Amino acid sequence: MEGEPTLRLRIFDLNCWAIRYLSKRRQERVRLIGDKLRQEGFDLVLLQEVWSEQDYSDLKVKLAGCYPFSHYFRSGVIGSGLCVFSRFPILDTLLYQYSLNGYPYMLQHGDWFCGKSVGLVVMKISGIIFNVYVTHLHAEYCRDKDAYLPHRLVQAWELAQFIRHTSKAADVVLLGGDLNMHPEDVGIRLLRGWTGLRDAFAEAMRFEGCKNGCTLVPDNCFTDKSEMLPFPLGIRIDYILYKAISSFTVKCEELKTTTGPAPGMAIPFSDHEAVMATLHIQRQGQPAGATLGTADLALADVVTEARTEVGVGLRAAQRQRYSWGRMAVLALLLLLLQAAAALGTLAGLGAEQPFPKLSFCLLAFLSLAILVVATGLHIFHTMEVKMLHGTEDQMWMALRALQERPSEG
Amino acid sequence: MEGEPTLRLRIFDLNCWAIRYLSKRRQERVRLIGDKLRQEGFDLVLLQEVWSEQDYSDLKVKLAGCYPFSHYFRSGVIGSGLCVFSRFPILDTLLYQYSLNGYPYMLQHGDWFCGKSVGLVVMKISGIIFNVYVTHLHAEYCRDKDAYLPHRLVQAWELAQFIRHTSKAADVVLLGGDLNMHPEDVGIRLLRGWTGLRDAFAEAMRFEGCKNGCTLVPDNCFTDKSEMLPFPLGIRIDYILYKAISSFTVKCEELKTTTGPAPGMAIPFSDHEAVMATLHIQRQGQPAGATLGTADLALADVVTEARTEVGVGLRAAQRQRYSWGRMAVLALLLLLLQAAAALGTLAGLGAEQPFPKLSFCLLAFLSLAILVVATGLHIFHTMEVKMLHGTEDQMWMALRALQERPSEG
Predict the structure, then answer these.
(1) Which class for B294: exposed (0-12), middle (13-18), buried (19 or more C-beta within 10 A)?
(2) Which residues pair with A84 in a beta bridge?
(3) Range of A185's domain?
(4) What's the total number of domains in chain B?
(5) A161-182 pLDDT, tens per residue?
(6) Interfacial B residues in 382-401 facing A (CB < 8 Å)
(7) TM segments (chains A, B) (predicted)?
(8) Residue B2 lies in a domain
(9) B167 pLDDT above the threshold of 70
(10) Spatial CA neighbour of A257 closest among A280, A230, A238
């Protein structure tokens, strides 16, 4: 314990639910969040769902004094919603946009338009290199019949792979965000197993906040009560995860969540509760990265489970691709038939005009519209098939590597 | 020189031009490529434009003996076209899809549908960790008025950032591919300056092949002669780049290009010439990675130049977004007007039916079609604006870091 000094790092993570025109009392809440951040003086702030760049700019101006460094990640139609505020200089950034993120035609579930991504921020604090990741995965709209599970699993896999490949020169890895997965879900197990990241809630020496560390709770006045019915205590989907890579140890001294409105305030910061962790980072003689080797068998099971789910998604996507392709071909045939009929009439082959003009035109437009839409959807599902297939392949390669490891060493 | 043994690595890189139904004599050429690879027994083969998974599978079967390890990168509608064959085991892979890649409505330039990406393959050869990257950037269709320059620059920047962030644990970095940039272009200078990668052609101790290392030459029977008119000698757009990161040195002993059809064959392998490099890798006492620090000022100039071009693209994208948005609003207004007129007629407000039914319907369909298309394009250009803006930001951060470096250290 003595000798090397300890670095104490206070981290704040929140899904801000700041959707322009849609989120309730957005501007008021963004102001409250800014006040809280200024008051508490965290070292590092990881925010999600800051969809409006104006909100980010307002926060940036307000927080310039205590968080002189910040970054907003841009992607997709609406944005990634991800941003970082920091007391320490940001040396470098990188954005990785997930290859799958729902469907553009599911307008009521706007995820596709958000360009869901993982943002990486590299920092050096007291000589220690931190790779800080912030992300927000695809939402779960129906737990019993979760059509987006394969997409979320692809995202969890890409997140894990991105972290593994980019963090090799880092001393400490931190990940904060709304992962939209319950703690025991296969995606979380995959992410933790494949990266060796540890869950601040599970590791914390002290905890204070909502029961079981839940971050989506029925008591919050902004949550959808009907969605929370199966979970009377709430659910935990917002996480702070960490690991030390080189000769450092990280311990979570304290984890807190907000519990609805802060004292003296009328409303909560968001429909999610914030997660706040206090980490202790210390240099140690021996590397602490032996998490992976010991649990290879369990990890292989998780990867297999995830791969099965991705396979289910792959077959569904293949069916969709096939049926939209067939629809496009049928629409094209109908159009060609109509064109032939029209040409026939023009050439005077038919004695009289066989159809009323209006219905003929309407039918032509309808087939054209179906052709365009079905072709677009066929193309979209082709991309989906490619990405699911690619992920299945990568997971297979990972499994092979896991199985070969004992015989090699 | 003595002491540590030298690793000799032979690398083959080729844009295969294997587009199903479109490329001339595709199957014959893929067979020839397979023969050549089997005959020559390279250590590492980096291929682009292998669009058909069937072609990849055929090659894989054919090359199973001499290249037991391979990987095909899947992305986009058609695929990434990227694949790797190797004599040595592939330990891990990662795909990064570029955020910008042309326009879906430029059907004659099919780049958007290809999901242009950079693929990473991690290998360990004789105890040396290799990060091997293979990529294919957006094509240049008109050099004088290159509408895709901002997109290609974003890709070059993302490629450089991806390499920097993922290669920190590697001993040697290799990049092969069709970069679609001439050696003196700003994108190449940006990539080389920002990553420290060296050009095998420029560094080679021996060279054999097309003059100036050109890989797109008028003598090749598959190249478009009219496009080559301004470049009678051809152009060099296919590269093998490399650098040693830790205490290794890499030297290019020999670089070769093919020169049209190989002896005894009637046709060339592709419309591009293949690039073949023989590298020498040796362990050394001192790290050889001092390329960056020495040329900071020149690098800042390159980043500034690239950022200016990205800015030009950003303003063009903003104009496009605005005008498609305006078009969508106008179409919506027209539709509403028609709806009002139709309702008025139904309610018996107008004495008689004021317009012929057919024209009325046609107009409604036309406005609807314009509304849908214009909204789609508005959304697309919004994404484009986000990504160009994000890259401009990242480049600004890089410039700041470059300017601050001398004062720090």
Answers:
(1) exposed
(2) A46, A71
(3) 7-283
(4) 2
(5) 999 999 998 999 999 999 999 9
(6) 382-383, 386-387, 389-390, 393-394, 397, 401
(7) 328-351, 357-380
(8) no
(9) yes
(10) A238
